[in-house]
Amino acid sequence: MNIVYRQKKLVSFFGFFSVYPANHRCMFISALTLTLLLAFVHGCRADDLLKPGDQTVKDTFGKDSSIMTWLLIGEVITAIVAYVATKNIKVLFGVIVLSVFITIAAAVIGI
Fold it and tell me: What's the number of CA atoms in the CB half-sphere (13 Å) around residue 15?
């Protein structure tokens, strides 16, 4: 008589991961390792070596810089050329949305 014992299957909090009880020790060790790693990384402190370059970056890529002006002009030209090449209005609006996204991202970054 062959008796086959199967491990009891547990369903985790998310429902789509299946976790077996034998793997709990491995998961605990992984979580402990990650916690220790984050604890040691948090303790590292250093001076910001790129802090003196902030003003240079803002002067080069800021709101009133020529780079941003040329970038916006390039995006408009790209939108027009892409629309003429494809005759698809979605392409035109896609490039305009990209331009708005770049402007918002620059404002969020602080340049």
Answer: 0
